Amino acid sequence: MKKLLAALAVIGLLGLNSITYAQENTLDELPLGLDYIGHQNETAISYLYENNIVEGYPDGSFKPDNSLTRAELMKILVLGAGYDPDAEVYNGCFPDVGNDWFARYVCFAYEHGWVEGYEDGEFKPGNNVLKVEALKMLLEIFSVRLNYFPESPFEDVGLDQWYSTYVITAAGLNLLEEEGLYNPGDLITRGGVSENIYRLILDEEERFDAANKEMLCELYDAGEFSLELDLEEDLAPLLKEKLIFNGFDAEEESAFEAITSRNSYTLNPFLNDPETYCEE
């Protein structure tokens, strides 16, 4: 990694790739239509589209209330989290996942323990996804550390359910739009997953910035900050520690690198006036 120099305004970029919700050969780069205007997830969809995270169908529509398949969701989440698996490496991990367009996303996620197959050994890429299944994948792929609480914010999510920790963690981070009832058995929709991802991106940026600020200001207060600090050898371990403290599951190097690659921050406010920056 490069030295941390003043001229380096941005260390990481929001590396969210262009993502499609359907098979790769069925979507064109068309302006998004207006069928999502007025929808409850309009803000989220607009944000993700403007940042090249989601696309519409060939006719330009988005169809926010359409459900998602397991294959489609894996591509969204894996690429959206900053990973770009090699198709030559990740394939053939299930009897029904060979060299298909979705194989590299499914097999990469499977290798990392983010998804599982069914009892018959198949992945069933064409199956639709439940809300709780999508939420589990989202939190694990984006390396969110799970939190444990003594009670659930939803009447229909009991603490004895396998998905309760995921739902409660997401609710605590304000990733969910539901109130009162979560309806865990419902299918995830294009609009719904857009809302979850949008909120997680904003929340992650906030927590990442907080971790970075804590790191820089602790170094400054201790008189140990220098422009000659090496990003990899000196700062990375400190930043990782702060990320974990701020709710990231960043212990693994691959997760840490993905988190830093998809978040952007500038050193300018700190370098311009460290004392004021650290007092705010």
Rg is 20 Å
> What is the helix fraction of residues, given as a range?
40-55%
- How many discrete structural domains? 2
Number of strands: 0
| End-to-end distance | 29 Å
Strand content: under 5%
Any low-confidence stretches, pLDDT <50, length ≥5? 1-30
What's the overall average pLDDT, rounded?
A: 84
Structural class call reads mainly alpha
Please write out the topology.
Blueprint: H1 42-50, H2 70-80, H3 103-111, H4 131-141, H5 164-172, H6 190-221, H7 231-245, H8 253-261, H9 268-272, H10 274-279
How would you describe the overall organization of this protein?
The protein is 41% helix and 0% strand. By secondary structure, the chain is mostly helical. It has two domains: 176 residues, no CATH class; 74 residues. Helix 2 runs parallel beside helix 4. The relative contact order is 0.15.
Summarize the structure.
With 280 residues, the chain is mainly α. It is built from 10 helices and no strands.
Notable features of this structure?
single chain; 280 residues; mainly alpha; 2 domains; globular; disordered N terminus
